[in-house]
Amino acid sequence: MAQLRTSDGSTFLSRSRDSLDRFTGSYPARFAIMVFAAMNLLFMLLFMTPWASATGEPTGPVDAFFQAVSVVCVTGLTVVDMSTHWSPFGNAVVLLGVQVGGIGVLTLASILGLTVARKLGLRQKLMAASDSNPSRVRKGVVKEGQAIRLGEVGGLLRTVALSVLVFEAALIVLLYPRILLEGKNPLQALYEATYWSFMAFTNSGFVPTPEGLDPYATDPWFLIVLVLGVFTGSLGFPVYFVLLRHLGRPRQWSLHVKLTISVSLLLFLLGGLSFLVLEWGNPDSWGTDGFGQQLLHAFFLSSMARSGGFALEDLGLLHNSSLLVTDMLMFVGGGSASTAGGIKVTTLAILFLAAIAEARGRKSMEAFGRRIPSDVLRLAVSVTLWSATIVAGVTIVLLEITGAPLSFVLFDVISAFATVGLSTGFTHPGLEDPAKIILAITMFVGRIGSVTLAAALAASQTTQLFTRPEERPIVG
Fold first, then answer.
1. Which of 136, 189, 199, 459 is 20 to 30 A from 450, comparing alpha carbons?
2. pTM of structure
């Protein structure tokens, strides 16, 4: 069949491809958001089908939209019972959705292209690189040393695919025997082990059974395996890439890797110790259990608050001080280009390094024998302020809609924005539809990242060819 041609002799297909290339090149942030939004809508339609529901009845559009966004954004908040509401087809969609969301839509597309075509074009490399370093969505020079060089993107994609397969398979092997001990038949145990594995590594936090973690609430083996799965997933694929190349040579690790690992471990320890002290003696949580169980529960929550999403207790019964610490940990989140959310641990590290440099009277930030340029600080401040503004605005709106307590609303809003999935009970099936929609949009915005969103909203970026007179306002 002859292809339709325009007046200049080109086909509509070629002109459409050229238009797409120009759009992705000129507005990479908008293209990334469009692709991710389309993926969320696709999963919403799948969840609305009668085949996805255990009862055979279609799921309402609002609930389907909320759960689709929660799944693809690897959040873990629910307005339906995830263990009983979905059919086998629906559960398969859930498992597929968290994998797509955890790996990254653009990264996954590039992996598939690499698998099929055996090579990557420049556009595929740029798309994958934008998933590994949000700074690339901004026009202008981006220092390649900050993350992954374009020539290394193929290796990064192989690392992503390999790490997902290896880590999730290892988690399945570790969890499977323990689930068998609960009396589950081998096939059911394999399904549950796979479900727990996927949810731990992708930091999603959904549970496969109505009883959830209750059978394993005092089991160190099961809980520690989940913690390890969540922690490895929250480090980020660029970290795996560097570690695989220089596993026994820490001196050759990049500054990003060193900051991510050190700050993640520090937050895990400080969070666990804080929960241990603050919940001491609280009969509604673990405060009156044996010391070993208190340690286990405190550090389990410290790990889950960074984006894991699994909960052993009713978080609404924790002391308000513990809820505030959890808010802080959730807001920070995990590593860049990881399955975790939040403003990222490197953002927090940059802000503290800037404060230390200012206190010492130094002109630049330094860490691990490296100097950090000032433009990185500007980006860190921008991410933090945009994120705090979004959280505050959404919290105010939801307080007006629901009339719920501030501590509960703020907790769930941060959990949604940081794609954590923990809840005080504010997010539930009876929540008003407008509140569900707002929380779903919050999850979406939190997952795509404030840097990508800001770049997408910018109508244009122009080069300033002049410098205005300098004047210092009073600060502090």
1. 199
2. 0.86
